[in-house]
Amino acid sequence: MPQRIHHYFGDSWTEAPLVRALRCTQGWRSIAAPVVMLLGILVVPTLALAAQSTPPLYKVQREHVWIPMKDGVRLAADLFMPVGGRPGEKFPAVFKYDPYRKDDNRNGFSECDINLYFVARGYVGACVDVRGSGQSEGHLPPREYSAQELDDGEEIIAWLARQPWSSGAVGIFGKSWSGFNAIQLAMRNPPALKAIITVASTERLYEEDCHYTHGIMNFGDDYNVDIDAQNPRSRSPDFPTDEQTLHNRFDSPPWTLLWLRQQRDDDFWHEPEKPLDAIRVPVLLIGAFLDEYRDTIPRWLSEVKTPVRAIVGPWGHDYPHDVNPGPAIEWRDLAVRWWDQWLKGKETGVMSEPKLAVYMRHWFPPDPRLTHIPGEWRNEDRWPPRDQKIQPYYLRPDHSLSNEDTPAPAVDSLKYVPSIGVQAGVDDFDVQPDQRSVDAFSLVYDSAPLAKDSAILGVPEVGLRASATAPQADWFVRLSDVAPDGSVTLITDGALNGAQRDSMAHPQALEPDKVYALRVRLHFTSWVFPTGHRIRVAISNARWPMFWPTPYAMITSLYLGGPGAQASRLLLPTVPLTSALAPPHFSAVAPADRPTSPQDSARTSPKWTLHRSEFGRPTIVDAGSGQWPEKPLSFPWALYSNRQHRAYEVQDEHPELASYTGFVDMRQQFPNHRELIWHTEWNIHSDRTNFYYDLKRELLEDGKAIRTREWRDTVPRDHQ
User: Fold this and answer.
1) Sheet holding 534-540, edge to edge
2) Residue 639, strand partner residues
3) What angle, rounded to 10 degrees, do the helices at 147-161 and 177-188 form?
4) What is the pTM of this model?
């Protein structure tokens, strides 16, 4: 068979937008807005709620409370109480629960304020800090979603249910970490829990979370280091530095080291999880096509037996009323109907409506500055859609995609360039730039110009017959829309750790040059291809710095042709351009429950910069990082600011020699001139057999180090 080896060399440098700083699982966002102080009691006026589709019935009173745990630890909580009801009136409770410091979130915006909408319509709302975080007492748990954290969650539910104002019914809501907690507590089925609303979340902590996405070590996501910088901070407003506080927080081992030691899908990742059929409460899911947790939606719609509804929009890791890019929608009125149905026993018709409201995205230019995604909303009453068809497209030797007969056998080969990836965007939380600069390092296959508009909705899949000259290789697949002007817009993507081709729990090295049948599932997506555009599949073996590179210089090959089911091919979930169902209707977004922050207009998006040098060591740095911001966030007790620097390096001819170095500083400046800085720095690098981990943590008070800890370890590479 003819064989072609492609050698590609990139530009001397290029830039790509950095996704919003502090995102992933646990919901860090770089939204800046003023904080509503939670000391004492605050009466929230109803003026900002006046224009909403379901009218507010109550004013809202906010107060700080302590929720006692069985072991004597008290969890800090804010209660949002309805004011103006009948004497003795009782209310269901809804709450969110995470470690993101309800009183002084580093982004200046507390998601607790979503409670204002619910409480004004007849609920008690609560926000609770996980033990050992924020204002809560106790020792920081040893991991995310620990048994301790979820045991505490069950106690919170029971406490809310037995309060004198409570009707006994409780719901959980939240985005990212708090959404994960909603899922995991629903799996435990505590008696008082009646329903959940989970936004941008998943139950699959290994393959879909931000530590080993697709089974590949993901060290490019900010959360993976920033949570280790956040965890040591003591409680507001006094930020004590006594021995007990430092023991409970500062001395806690770093989670990045814990995750580094868990490189396969074993019992560690499944510890918080129970089967989906364990869930007995109704679930409202909200997802987004620019969020890495969107695959939860089709899986839950098809597998969960309890009542499930879902909304999937075109935005990123956000609540739907506060998104960029838009269009935003008002979802909180549906949430109130959801709560009314399951927590108050009212018939709201919420389950007589279609199961899925999904935004069908139309083509848009590959511009990260885009603020509005074109398209329209669509309803589906089942999953998969009853009119969905799977259309195969075969990869051909002339680099075309064809849905006709499979081509004659051939082989396409590609040199592995471990430093590529940043040119196409760092991860899935934003509109990505033009893909051409990374397609130049990839095997690319294009369809003919489409003769008519064509729509897809579902989970595309790519089957590859492939080999590698090394025992370890990853495959990254991107599905894109090629416009007539040549610009390439990313639609969705996916990846496969070649060692995990048969099992994420039991990886096995590749046999060099052996041909394997590989299956790469892409992320859930929607798209309408315009007439005259082309469908593109691009395949590469690196996505740096999001994913750690495999450690061998190599060539990978794709084997084309052969019998249809065994051929390298794309499977597209096609649907008619319009649904037989009437489209969903969403209310206009209610006025903001918080004013605009001065920082909003001043904030600019940071960028990654890739430097290539004659020494063959491409380095990616966070351009402009390492500086304190000009305008710190202002809290009543102190000014808060943070700075960070990150740098990634890999050698194209020696991909085993990859490294990440960086630091994060978090500073509190008090009116009495006291200053605290929590400093965390990392040096993580690898060779062919090991990862080498070094984390240093330091607390400085008024410029003097008062506590220092360091963790060092050598961790064997486990098929990563």
Assistant:
1) 443-446, 534-540, 474-482, 488-497
2) 634, 669
3) 80
4) 0.90
